[in-house]
Design a protein that fits this description.
By secondary structure, this protein is of the alpha/beta class. It has one domain (about 5-220, about 285-315): TIM Barrel (Alpha-Beta Barrel). The chain is built from ten helices and 15 strands. An eight-stranded parallel β-sheet has the order 3-5-6-9-10-11-12-15. The chain has a three-stranded mixed β-sheet with strand order 4-8-7, with no helix packed on it. Strand 10 (about 160-165), helix 5 and strand 11 (about 185-190) form a beta-alpha-beta unit. The protein is globular, with a radius of gyration of 18 Å. The two termini are about 25 Å apart. The relative contact order is 0.15.
Length: about 325
């Protein structure tokens, strides 16, 4: 397997696997008390996991200002330290939050907020630039997005960012950002249970990287979850919002989703892979533009995810068999 993939037109080379830093932000919530994090977290273990990922060749880390209401960026910045120049850092903006109460308070799609948020992120990350700056408002109006795209072009000219992207599952919206000269990617959901053919097509036609959040289906494809297995109260999956597929309110993993995973298990665990490694291998086989970003909270998770790189993508025949089993 290739040792790097490129973030689209940005000509920014990254490891074929990135690490998503949502989980290491710890607990946070919306104004109504809905958990938005992944439960309690050990910051020292998070730092050790990042260091282990670096040692294993992972060079791409994706976070957001709102993850843990700033905490994820702070932990990532602390962990990278003097190794900042060795990695590609992506973060996101668009949400408003209160760090003191760890609460999401609203959204702001104005160019002025984009600049203020970028300044704040640079401070928390301890860096003078962000490699990939991503709009975090998935359903922002295209006219607003066009103004933000131009603001990002200004940030590029000022040397504050190298490239930008939109985190959205709507190809029509992503296409608005794709019109910008320094748009390098789109971040969208993609996993073996949830394909995104229209978004993959846009990335391939427009020369963008496809950065894949939820590559392990919020942990279902890690193989650790059982039906009706309760989750800790501070975990977003314990009270899943409407957009979070595969989990049932208060009862854990959806048995139907687990059944689909069982049907794919033999293929995904071929070649000595773990289930999670097979899920990442399917994404790499899906397109040469994909860069999955599984989350992590421990050294063990970092090692398992990074271990997928050496095993490479599934074969075309295996991917076709998966499509047949899933009826697509």
């Amino acid at each position: 397997m290739e040792t790097t993939r490129t973030l689209g037109r940005g000509r920014i080379d990254v490891s074929p696997l990135g690490f998503g830093c949502w989980a290491i932000g710890g607990e946070w919530q919306d104004a109504g008390g809905q958990p938005l994090g992944w439960g309690k977290v050990d910051d020292d273990e998070s730092v050790r996991a990042i260091h282990r990922a670096l040692d294993l060749g992972v060079t791409f880390f994706d976070t957001a200002d709102v993850y843990g209401t700033g905490h994820s960026e702070r932990v990532l910045g602390r962990a990278l330290g003097k190794r900042r120049a060795d990695v590609v850092v992506a973060t996101k903006w668009g949400n408003l939050f209160d760090e003191g109460t760890r609460t999401l308070t609203g959204q702001d799609a104005s160019p002025g907020h984009a600049r203020a948020a970028l300044t704040a992120s640079l401070g928390r990350l301890g860096t003078d630039h962000v490699d990939l700056y991503q709009l975090h408002l998935s359903d922002a109006h295209p006219e607003q997005a066009a103004r933000l795209r131009e603001a990002c072009e200004e940030f590029v000219r000022e040397g504050l960012i190298r490239a930008y992207a939109w985190s959205t599952d709507d190809p029509d919206r992503a296409a608005v950002f794709a019109e910008g000269a320094h748009c390098a990617a789109v971040q969208h959901a993609l996993n073996v249970l949830r394909d995104a053919p229209a978004m993959i097509a846009l990335c391939e036609e427009s020369g963008l990287a496809s950065i894949n959040r939820s590559p392990l289906a919020m942990g279902l494809l890690a193989g650790k979850r059982r039906a009706r297995q309760a989750l800790e109260p501070g975990d977003i999956r314990s009270r899943p919002p409407a957009w979070l597929e595969g989990f049932e309110d208060g009862t854990g993993a959806d048995p139907e989703w687990l059944g689909r995973i069982d049907a794919l298990r033999e293929i995904l665990t071929s070649g000595g892979r773990t289930l999670a490694q097979g899920a990442l291998a399917w994404i790499w086989a899906r397109s040469p533009r994909t860069v999955p970003i599984p989350g992590f909270r421990s050294v063990a998770q970092a090692e398992e995810n990074a271990g997928a790189i050496a095993k490479g993508p599934l074969t075309a025949e295996q991917s076709a068999e998966i499509d047949r089993i899933l009826g697509r």
